Amino acid sequence: MAVDFFRRSGRHRYCSGVPSSERVYPMSTGTGTAPGVAPQPVGSDDLSLAVAALTSPALAEIVDLTAWVDAGWLYVANAGGSARLPVSDPDGPWEVRFGRHPLASQDPMHGVPLAAALADPSPPNERDAYPFAGRRLLSAFGDATRSPDLIVVHTPRHYWPERGGHLGEHGSLNAGQSRAPLVLSGPGVRGRGLRPGAARIIDVAPTLAALAGVTLPGAEGTALTELAGPGARHVVGLLWDGANCNDLLHLAQTGALPNVARLLAEGTALTGGAIAEFPSVTLTNHTSALTGVGPGRHGILHNVYFDRATGRQVIVNDVKTWHAACEQLRDGVETLFEAVARQRPGAVSACVNEPVDRGAHYSTFGLVRAAGNAGGAGDMGDYLPAAEGDPHASARWVQQSADYAWSTRVDALGLAQVVQLWAPGTTPPDVMWWNTTVTDTGHHGGGPYSDQSRAALRDADARLGSFLDLLAERGLLAETAILLTADHGSEAADPACRGDWGDALRAAGVRFRDEGYGFLYLGESVLDGLSLDDSAVGVASS
After folding, report:
1. HSE-up (13 A, CA, CB side) for residue 177
2. Which Gene3D superfamilies match (predicted)?
3. N or C: which end of the chain has fewer CB within 10 A?
C-alpha cells in the first residue's frame, strides 16, 4: 500500500512542530499556600474550597459550571445554583439543591439551524443547553486513575489566549461546542436530504461497523440502523476536525460546498449532527468515534490528563505523541479496525492521518512508528508537500497564517495517501478512515462562520471532490458508503471575556493541578514527569 512517502533518506520532520505557540499552553498548579492564606492542614477539604471559589459570582463570566462526584452522586454547580444526579441513573431525574439548575436544558437541538445559532451566539448558561449531560459527565469521571476530582467548564465566550485559547473554541459540555456534523451517503443509506434529530459521536463506530457488515458488541453507542445498513462494498469514514455542523449544512445547501452536496444528493444528514463526548476536544472524541465508547471506558480522558497510577502527566494530542496515543487505550476496548479484522479476516482497512489507528492494515502513524524517530511525527516534516501552490488550498490563508499553512500541508499528504490507496490498478481498502486537519485550524483561527473557517471547509470540500472524482473514474462511487462527521463543534469566544480561575483557586489556598484547563486534580500540585514525551512542557489545545 501507500508507503512511498516514508522511504526517503536523511533526517525527516513530518510535522516539525506546530508553528503557533497558541497551540500549546502550560499546566496550572496551586500549592495551597497562597500569600495571605494560612496553609491548610493535610486532609483539608480542597474540594469544598475549590467549589466555593469557582462558584463565586466574580467568576461567573468565565466559569459556566463545575462538576464533581461524591458518595454516589454527580453534582453540578455555578454562581446561580446547584443540582445533583444519582450516579446509578445517568439519565435523571436531577434534583435541584438550590437556586437555578445549571443544566436546566439538555435539548440536543438547541441552536439549530444556523439562523438560531446566529440569533443567540455563545449564549449564557440560562439560555444554553447541555445534551446528554449526565452520561457525558459521568463518563469523564469514569476512569479509576485518570479522571479528575473536579471539572470546570468554560463559558462559551471565555477567551484565554495566554493558556492556548482561540477566537473559535470547543471543549465545553454545551451544544454549540459539542455539535459535530453527521452526513451519510451511498449504498445502504436510507433516505435523502436533511432530517431533524441528533446522534452522538459514540454512534459513529457502530454505524460504520453496520455499513461494513460487522458489529462492535462492547460499544456504548448505537448503530444508526434507521439511517443506514449493509449494502456497500467499501465503507469510508471522514472526520473534518472541528467542523461546525450548522455552517457545513448551510454552505452545502447554498452551493459553497458542492462535494458535501454531492453526498447529500445520495444520502442524508441529521440537522442536529452528532454530540461529542465530554470534554469536546480532539483526541477524546477521535477515540470515541472509532471505538464507540466514552472516555471513561477508552481511557483517553482529554488531550492531556494526569494519571495517578503512574504519577505522571499524559499528553496524547501532540505531534510528538500522536503515534503512541493508542498505547493509552484501556484493556477491553476494541477499535473499528480491530472489529473488521476479527469478523472479516479477508478485509483490508486503512487509517489516514489518524492517531487512533490500532488494528488498521495501513496507517499513517504506523509508518511513523516504523520509522523509529524519537520525536515521532515531529521528526518527519520533509514528507509534507508545500502549501504554496496547493490547488486545494485557500492561498490567502496559507499566506496569512502559519497554522493554516501547516494544516494545509498535513491535509495535502492525507489526500496523496488516499489517492495512492485508491489509485487505478490497486485493490482499494474495504474500510477507510480519513482525518482532515485544516477545518479545525480555520475554526480556531477565525471562529465559526468566519472567512477563515469557511475557507477551511471549502478546502476540505475540494479534497473530498478529488476523492469522489477518483471513485467515479474507477466506477466505485455507487459501491462506496461514506460517513462524514467531526470530533466536536466550534463556538465564538469574546476577546473581552478574560480571566483565569487558577488565580481564585490559589487565593483560596487550594492544592491542585489543572490539566487541559478544566480538569482539576486536587492535592496534586507538583509538576511531574511526562509519560509520552519527557521533553514537553505543555499540551496541544486543539
Report:
1. 31
2. Alkaline Phosphatase, subunit A
3. N
